[in-house]
Amino acid sequence: MKQGHLILSLGFILLLQSTLNGWAAEEVPLSYHYPLSADECGSMYVWDVSMAMCMPLPMADMPMKMVMLRGNGFGTYISGAGPRGRDAFAGPNMVMLDLGTTLGDRHYLNLDIMGTLEKWTFPDQGYPLLLQVGESNGNGIPFIDAQHPHSSPIMGLTVSDTIKLETGREKDHLKIFFAPRGESTDGPIAFMHRPTGIANPDAPLGHHVGQDVGHISSTVIGASLNLNHTRFEVSTFNGQEPEPTQIDLPVDVPNSYSLRLIEDFSSTITGMVSAAYVKDPEHDDPSIPFVTRYSASLYTRHTLKQWHLYNAFIFGLITQYAHAASLASFGEEFWLHNSKEMRIFGRLEVIQRTPHELEIAASDPNSGRWVVATTVGYTHAITQIDEGEIGIGASVTKDFLPTDYQGTYGGNPWTGKLFLQFSGMKMSHY
Question: What pTM was computed for the model?
Answer without folding.
Answer: 0.89
